[in-house]
Amino acid sequence: MSFKEYRTNIEENDTAILYLGFDNMHAIKVVKGQTFQTKFGALRLSNLIGKPYGSRIQCPKGYLYVLYPNPELWTQNLPHRTQILYSTDISLVTLQLDLKPGSVVVESGTGSGSLSHAIIRTVAPEGHLYTFEFHEQRAQIAKEEFVEHGVSDFVTVTHKDVCQDGFGLNGIADAVFLDLPRPWDAITSAKQALKKEGGRLCSFSPCIEQVQKTCELLQQLGFEDITSMECLVKNYDVRTINLPIADLGKNNSTLLNTCTALDEKKACKEIEEKADLVKIQTETEDLETKEKLEPMDTDLKEKLTSKDKDKSNKAVDKNKLRTDFDLIGKKEQFSFFFKTGVFPQNMPGHTGYLTFCTLYPS
Asked: What is the C-alpha separation between 279 and 284, in angstroms, rounded?
C-alpha cells in the first residue's frame, strides 16, 4: 500500500480504512490471523486479502466497506499523538502557500502527520518535505509511518527544536509552515530557509496574542502581504417553509403577484374557496341568530345545513395539505411554500488562526 499511487487489491500489511458510516471509520493494518471488532460483529482480516478496495464486506450483523487510504481519510482516522489540522484548514494552507508538484516545503512541528501527508501528496513526485519535530518519540513514529505508507522518498524527518536551534537550511524552500507555541523564535531561521527568489510562510496559532506578536516580527523582517485568517465550516439545513397568503382583496397588486408566482389559476381558486368558506360561516352564524328570533321550517333547515356542509368540505380538503418531512410552520392548505437554508443554532467553535505572508526577492 502506498499513499503516492493507487493499488486495486488489498494485500497483507496494507493500511486500509473500514467505513461503517459517515462518522464511524477505522484505520487498520491488514494482518493475517487477526480479528477486528466492529459494531456489526467480528471481522477476520484474513478475509480482506485479495479483495478489491471499495468492496462491501458482510459481517455477522451488517456490512461495511473497505476503502483505500488517502490524506483526507487518514486525517479523520489517524492515531492522535497531538492536536491536528483538519481538511478545512489544510485545504486553505495548500492554496495560500501555492503548493504544487515540485515544491519544496519546510514544516515544524510534525505532530501526528496530518498536514504532512497532505503536503507530500501535493508536492510529489519531484518535490520534497522537510519536517521537524522536537519530541524524539513522535519524530520516530512519524518516520516509521512514512515508510509504512510508501512516501519516505518524499520526506525527511528531523528530531530538532527549531525554536532554539533553527532549521539549519539555507535557500532551498518554496514555503514554510510553522505550528509552534512560540513561532516568533523560528521566523528568522525560516526566512533563511526560503529561496532567494522568495516564497510564502504560514504560521498556525490558536491565540490572537500569538498572532499579534508574530505579525510584528514578520513586518520587521521584511515580509509583505501579511494576512491572518480563520476558516470555519457553516452547515445549512434545507427546509420547507410555509407562510399564509395575505388576503388583502382582489385589487391588491401584492396578492396578484404572489398568485402569478405560484400558479395563478390554482392559487386564486384556493383563495376564492377560502372566501366562500368565510361566507358560509358568516351565513351560518346569521342563520342561527335569525332562527332564535324566527323559528324555521325543519325541512328547510336540514336542506340548508346539508348544502353548507358540502361547500365546507369542498373548500377544506385535508388531502391537499403539504406533508414535507422538513416542513416548518403550521400546516395549512392556503399557504405559500418555498425552500430555504436554515442556520444551525450552534456552530463548532474556534480552532486557530492562519497567518500568511510573502517574502519577495531582495
From this structure: 9
* Cα–Cα dist 181/53, whole Å: 40
CA atoms within 13 A on the CB side of 82: 21
Task: Please give the model's pTM, rounded to 2 decimal places.
Answer: 0.72
At 99, phi and psi to the nearest 5? -80, 145
Contact (CB, 8 A) for 73 and 101: no
DSSP string of 173-201? BSEEEE--SSGGGTHHHHHHHB-TT-EEE
Question: How far is Cα of residue 65 from the mean position of the Cα atoms in its chain?
Answer: 21
Closest CA to 15 of 151, 127, 153: 151
Bridge partners of residue 238, in order along the sequence? 341
Phi, psi of 108 (to 5 degrees): -155, 125
Instruction: Check residue 33 and give left, alpha or beta (phi > 0: left; psi -120 to 50: alpha).
Output: left
Q: Determine how many CB atoms are found less than 10 A away from the CB of residue 315.
A: 19
- The crossing angle, in degrees rounded to 10, of helices 114-123 and 87-96 is 40
pLDDT digits (tens, 9 = 90+) for 61-97: 999 999 999 999 999 999 999 999 999 999 999 999 9
- Exposure letters 55-86 (e unless 16+ CB within 10 A, then b): eebebeeeebebbbbebbbbbebbeebeebbe
Instruction: Single out the residue of 53, 54, 56, 57 nearest to residue 42, CA to CA.
Output: 57
Collapsed DSSP state (helix, strand, coil) of residue 305: helix
State the residue for C-alpha cell 399557504: 335
DSSP state of 245: P
- Cell 486553505 found at: 92
Give the integer Cα–Cα distance in Å for 72 and 78. 10
CA atoms within 13 A on the CB side of 145: 23
Q: Each residue of 164-215: pLDDT tens digit?
A: 999 999 999 999 999 999 999 999 999 999 999 999 999 999 999 999 999 9
Question: To which residue does cell 512519524 refer?
Answer: 142
Of 102, 74, 103, 79, the residue nearest 90 (C-alpha): 74
